Amino acid sequence: MVISWLLLSIEKDIATSVLFCSTAKQIWEELEQRYGQSQGTKIFQIQRINNLSQGSMSVSDYFTKCKILWDEYAVLVSIPTCSNDECPIGKAMTKLLENQQLIQFLTGLNDNYVVVRGNILMTHPMPKIG
To answer: How far apart are CA 5 and CA 18, in angstroms?
Structure first.
């Protein structure tokens, strides 16, 4: 039943190429090997956030788009954290990532936010984003 569903869910030419797999698992693995993205490709696409800009989006929509990319990146690269609240490396890593995210967000804002962006960048310590 699962094999039939898989074969009916993909294009006819692709289905023909996996028709002789004997299990759904074999079909899935064959398709994953052929068409799946590597982690490197996914990370590369997410890192393109440096080219992301607000454009015609509201600030809220722009932030949401950034947040989705940041969260996906965090999952893919397994950012190290410490379970101990007093871990200086964990705190430093968290602050570094927060600062990077803030800079990425501010960089992509439209020019009509130049004054706000400047004020935020001049604060010390820089504010936490999100």
So the answer is: 13
